[in-house]
Design a protein that fits this description.
The protein has 361 residues and is an alpha/beta fold. Helices cover 32% and strands 21% of the residues. The chain contains 12 helices and 14 strands. The N and C termini lie far apart (55 Å).
């Protein structure tokens, strides 16, 4: 049976393009279309869809206002935002994911881009990821109602946890996430103390501009300092460095023993820039005694190759989000299947698990 999708966009042309893309795949069908959030709200009050593709800017009721109404009325929906590459829309899109949207797709700048294979690929890839993930959990709208039951997965023999705050070891936290990541991070980063005994480097798959908005929002919500990384940033404890969209982030050891951020615009790897594998692999030559690797929700397997490579050179401790609390159980599944995970925990326990491992100053 085909999955039913609701498309909400004020542009008749964009509605037509998105509907054609959805209907071109045997997995999906466009069940309904709406011109604004008000029409969509009336539909969602009485009809359940497998996913909703929602524009940000619309008359009468925009995408953000619709999500707020759905949250107020406790109407569940798996929502994918469609956003332009503007600073304003980036801020709104980050807010939309706070309100329950699972992720977003960037809107094409013109009709040529709209009809391109790349835009088609992005929409269908996102739909297949979120719908498949929901099916696996047996809950069509689980993205806005996360459960915390951890499934049985292969975990390495448990190690005795150390509080490195008193051990004198140099430790770094390196976190990777993708689909569902911006919302998931709000259940992790704001719960890290400002005196965390390690820096954190964070790779979230997002385009240029969106990582800055995400970092600024996380910084507003957190005691710990959060910033979008810039070239030459010196890593310090109690600070989170977010890889900027459109650039790979590497961490390099300096002659004085400090570590700095190095950014580059080398080609995307598997369509990803930033790519978590690049960051993890750069840590092979770092001066850290241990790397705490954290893998959260996301499609694909980015991070696994880099962590496996890092494991050959450094002592690592791997924390993975459990399947039940993931929007998409892709990246955590890949690292779990690789057999290097030390702990699998629900999203709400990730921050506690990190601090239990690295300690405070």
């Amino acid at each position: 049976m085909k999955k039913n999708i609701l498309v909400v966009d004020d542009s008749a042309l964009m509605r037509r393009v998105i509907c054609d893309i959805i209907d071109s795949d045997s997995t999906f069908q466009t069940k309904d279309v709406c011109r604004d959030g008000l029409e969509a709200y009336e539909k969602l009050k009485t009809t359940t869809y497998d996913a909703v593709v929602l524009d940000v800017n619309m008359p009468r009721m925009d995408g953000l206002e619709l999500l707020e109404k759905l949250q107020q009325d406790k109407i569940k929906a798996t929502v994918i935002m469609v956003s332009t590459l503007t600073t304003k829309d980036a801020d709104v899109t980050i807010r939309a994911m706070e309100l329950g949207a699972v992720d977003f797709i960037t809107k094409p700048c013109n009709i040529v881009e709209a009809k391109s294979n790349e835009f088609r690929r992005r929409i269908l890839q996102m739909l297949k990821a979120v719908v498949r993930s929901d099916d696996a959990k047996g809950n069509t709208n689980s993205s806005v109602s996360i459960t915390e039951e951890a499934p049985s997965v292969k975990v390495k023999t448990p190690k005795k946890l150390e509080r490195t705050g008193s051990s004198g070891k140099k430790v770094l936290v390196a976190l990777a996430c993708s689909t569902g990541g911006p919302k998931a991070l709000q259940s992790v980063v704001p719960y890290l103390p400002k005196d965390m005994n390690a820096p954190m480097v964070l790779v979230q798959h997002m385009p240029i501009g969106f990582t800055k908005s995400m970092a600024e929002r996380l910084n507003e919500l957190s005691e710990i300092e959060v910033r979008e990384a810039v070239e030459g940033d010196v890593l310090k404890k109690g600070c989170v460095y977010v890889a900027p969209g459109g650039r790979h982030m590497e961490i390099k050891k300096q002659a004085d023993g400090s570590h700095v951020v190095r950014l580059n615009e080398e080609p995307a790897i598997g369509g990803l820039r930033p790519c978590a594998n690049v960051t993890y692999e750069s840590l092979r030559t770092s001066g850290y005694d241990e790397i705490v690797c954290v893998v959260l929700t996301g499609m694909g397997s980015d991070g696994t190759g880099g962590i496996l490579s890092l494991n050959q050179k450094k002592k690592i401790y791997v924390i993975s989000q459990d399947a039940a609390s993931c929007v998409v159980y892709g990246m955590p599944k890949a690292i779990a299947e690789a057999g290097v995970v030390d702990e699998v925990v629900p999203l709400t326990e990730i921050a506690h698990t990190i601090i239990k491992k690295v300690g405070v100053q």
